[in-house]
Amino acid sequence: xxxxxxxxxxxxxxxxxxxxxxxxxxxxxxxxxxxxxxxxxxxxxxxxxxxxxxxxxxxxxxxxxxxxxxxxxxxxxxxxxxxxxxxxxxxxxxxxxxxxxxxxxxxxxxxxxxxxxxxxxxxxxxxxxxxxxxxxxxxxxxxxxxxxxxxxxxxxxxxxxxxxxxxxxx
Length: 170
Hints:
Layout: H1 5-42, E1 45-61, E2 68-78, E3 84-89, H2 91-96, E4 102-108, E5 111-117, H3 119-122, E6 139-140, E7 147-148
Antiparallel strand pairs: 1-2, 1-4, 2-3, 4-5, 6-7
């Protein structure tokens, strides 16, 4: 009795099942992409005030001799109702925007169209004035009497932490 034809037929059956599964997955992803593209085309273009909530990058590939590719994403928060939505963006948009930037977001469905910065919101706040040396109080360690540097609270002489004598002292 020859048992060679039976294992060969199982191999071919398994091969065609795996090939069929791969074909179904590829065709399904193509139809899914076409459906998303059609839904985005049918969606209205929306423009609203938003801010950049966070940014992230996703790196794929790059193992062995293969090259890596990076996808860039920005999450925006609508200022009116605080609804959040993430969009895939290009590297130019990703690097031009920072967290908490405010402006007008334009999108069509899940398709990012652009973000225009609000010049009034982009103006940085004026930092508080730095006190001059004459305005800075001189601090001394209450344990050993060493003078403390203004940028630290640790005594260089005994290592203790400086604590103000009164709650309103600097």
